[in-house]
Amino acid sequence: MEMTFEQAWIEHDYNPFIVFDNEGKVKSLNQEAQYLLGEVSTKEIFQITQTYANHTYGFKTTAIDLIYGSYKFYAITVGYLDEAQIGIKLYKVAAKKFTNIEEYGDSVNIYALLDLCISAAATRCNSKFAKEFDPTFPDVRVKIESFTKLLDKIYQSYKDNDTITTRLALTTGEYIKFNDKKYPIFSITFKAEQRDSSLEKLIEENALKSNCIVRFQKEMTVISSALVSA
After folding, report:
1. Alpha carbon of residue 42 to chain centroid
2. Torsion of CA 49, 89, 204, 158, to 10 degrees
3. How far is the C-alpha of 196 from the C-alpha of 156, rounded, in Å?
4. Mean pLDDT value of segment 115-121
5. Residue range 115-133: average pLDDT?
């Protein structure tokens, strides 16, 4: 059956949209929601939907910070008109746009830069440093000063661990488009048993200056940026 204009609009919305039945089974969802459910369970989204639903029938929009994998949201709308179904729309935080390639800074060997920051961090703690690096990266444009400060603050947040693991990899299926050209996204993941969350604000400030998106989890910090090569 051919979609109506309204159905097609929802299907191609930038934001995930899901309708559940009263048992939490998905009745319908748009393509962005399909990607989201690859990173978070249906049960967790249904629980959020129930928690923030209006006490009576109708629609309710709530400002709330949510992070699921590579997704970051700033608000949700939950709506229902009867007991048979309930829907949720999650509003994505927009990725930072850039107007020219030079905004991404100078070309640098990312392996050498990471090794330099790891060596500096190793002088300030007794941690062992494990590396899991994709070996195929070209030189990458970064704002070296702010990017180095970003890495330094992240390593500071893990300084009380026996082992700190750093993983460098491409993010499969994600791109930034500029002047009709797609740039892949790369991520650096830092993981250890415990993390000092008091440094999060400083890390976020340096991430913003470095054209990076940062996500925090209990034992992990992930920074992502466009892979803009020389």
Report:
1. 19
2. 40
3. 8
4. 96
5. 94
- Which domains does the chain possess? 5-92 (3.30.450.20), 101-226 (3.30.565.10)
Average pLDDT of the residues of the chain: 87
Helix spans in the chain (H): 5-11, 31-36, 42-51, 110-122, 144-156, 200-209
Residues facing 105 on adjacent strands: none
Model confidence over 10-66: pLDDT tens digits?
A: 887 878 999 999 999 999 999 889 888 888 899 999 999 999 999 889 999 999 989
pTM over 0.85: no
Neighbours of 112 (CB within 10 A): 10
Where are any strands of DSSP class E within the chain? 17-21, 26-29, 58-68, 71-80, 85-92, 106-108, 128-133, 140-142, 163-178, 181-191, 213-217, 220-226
* DSSP secondary structure letter of residue 33: H
Which residue, 113, 110, 119, 71, is CA-closest to 91?
A: 71
Q: Exposed (0-12), middle (13-18) or buried (19+): which is 170, by Cβ within 10 Å?
A: middle
